[in-house]
Batch of 2 targets.
Target 1
Amino acid sequence: MKNSPFSGKKVKVLLLKPLLGKGNAGDIIEVKTHYALYVLVPNKSAVIYDKQTHNQKSTQMAQIAKHKEAEQAKVKEMLSTIETNGGLIFSKQATEDNNLYDSITNRTLLAYVSKEYGVTLQPKNFELDKIESLGEFTASFSYQDITQDIAIKVVKATVSEVEETQE
C-alpha cells in the first residue's frame, strides 16, 4: 500500500450505521480514504461526504432515521427481555474472598449484549463502576432517548462451567 494514491489521505464520510468507537448514524467523521473506499462504502456503513452528498443529505438522513428506528426497537426489546429475566447474570471465577479473577466493565457489558441481542451500541451507552467481586450491581443504560437501570448479578462459576470455557 506504500504506492497507493490514498496513502495518508483522509476523507469525510456520513455514517449510515453506528460505527464502534467512531460515531453513530448521521455523524460526519473523518477517516482514512482507503478505509472509506474499501470498507465503509462497500458495507453500506457510510457514504463519502462531498457536495453532492451534502445536497442529498435529507435523503440520507431519512435512511438513517429508518435505521435508528429499527435499532431503537431492538434496544427496547433487549431491555424488556433483560427486565423480564431479572437482569443480566454473569458467571465468573472468583477467589475464596469472592473477588473476581477478571473484572466486569462497560466494555464487558457491551460485548455481552451485542452478542446476545444483536444490537449495535457504544461503550458510552453503559455507565458502570468496575465490578471486581461477586454480588448484585446496577448499570445505567442510555441510548438516544431511552434510559434505564440494568440489574447485574455476578455469581461464582461452577467447576463444569470453568471446564467448558477451557475447552
Target 2
Amino acid sequence: MELWDIYDDCFVKTGRFHERGKPLAQGDNHLVVHIFPVNKKGEILIQKRKDTLSWKPGLWAVTGGSAVVGEDAFTACQRELMEEMGVEATKENSYLALMTKRHDHFTTIWVVKTEISIEDVKLQPEEVADAMWATPQKIKAMMEEGTFIDFSYFDFLLQYIDQN
C-alpha cells in the first residue's frame, strides 16, 4: 500500500495521508514529480510506459510519479529517476524548473543534466518498456501523433532549459 501526504491548495501539508488508488477528497492534493533528464546535445531521455499500466499505457513520457509520505519534491525526483531509469539526480546536476497545479495535485518539474548512455539506462521492468534520447522536435512530433503524453508546459520548459 502506497501512502501520500495530503496538501491543501496553498501547498501546505495537512498532516493527513491518502492511499493510492482511492479518490482524493475535494480540496485535497498530492505531490507529483516529472523529470526531464537532458544531455549536452539538448536531447531528453524519455521512456515508453508498459502496456500493463492503468494510466496512459504504452505511451512515451518522461519519468515521473507521486511522492510518498515523508518525501519532499527533490527526494521524490531522485527516487523516481533511479527506480525507473537507473539515473542519479544530485543537487549538482538537478534543478527545479517549474511547478504547476492541477485539479488534485501539485507537479514539480525537474531538469537533470546527465550524459548517461542509453546502454547504461536500467529500466524498471514493472513500469518501463523502453527508453531513448529524443530531441525536443521529435517529442513535439510524438505529441502531435498521440504517442507521447502531451505536457501542456512543454514549450515553456524548453525555453527555460535553453536559458540554463
